[in-house]
Amino acid sequence: TTEMVSHAQLATLAIFALLPLFAVGETCLSPQVTSQVYTTSEATVSSETVVIIEFSLVCKNGHRDLNIYAEFNDKTFPASRVEETNKFQVSWSDEHKKIAAGKHTVRFFDEEAYADLRKAQRGGDDTSSIKSLFTIDVNHPGATEGIWVQSEFVAATVSILVFYLAHNAKSKLS
To answer: Quick check: pTM over 0.90?
Structure first.
């Protein structure tokens, strides 16, 4: 029984020694971000504006296994990470009128700050005081209606007109 007690004590000691490694979440220090942004600019062929942000994230402390969340217009979206890299992508869509032309700031959060953000949103509190990990500016030019007549229609109409004129000219010669 003494041997069993010493094994139990050793196992308990090992659990308590390893517990801080699992309990403490590591955060990204001094994030360096490079990004590319795409927004819908043509409203004629799409019913909603789409925003796609691709970004690379490098942490000063080398932390890579982060879950990142974006916040835009009081809505949150998870960012997808390309496996084994530091590259992420986040995207969403909304009605054209809800994503107006202009500069928009998208805030990004790690898991800890995201939990604080969600708590504030559920409580109806102001979320602007919650510190984001970083931000990315989206310069959306707006979605224009474009031309009302599609180029395929114009090409088909012109070819029918040319055929008609050629056929009439040939008929008059015969």
So the answer is: no
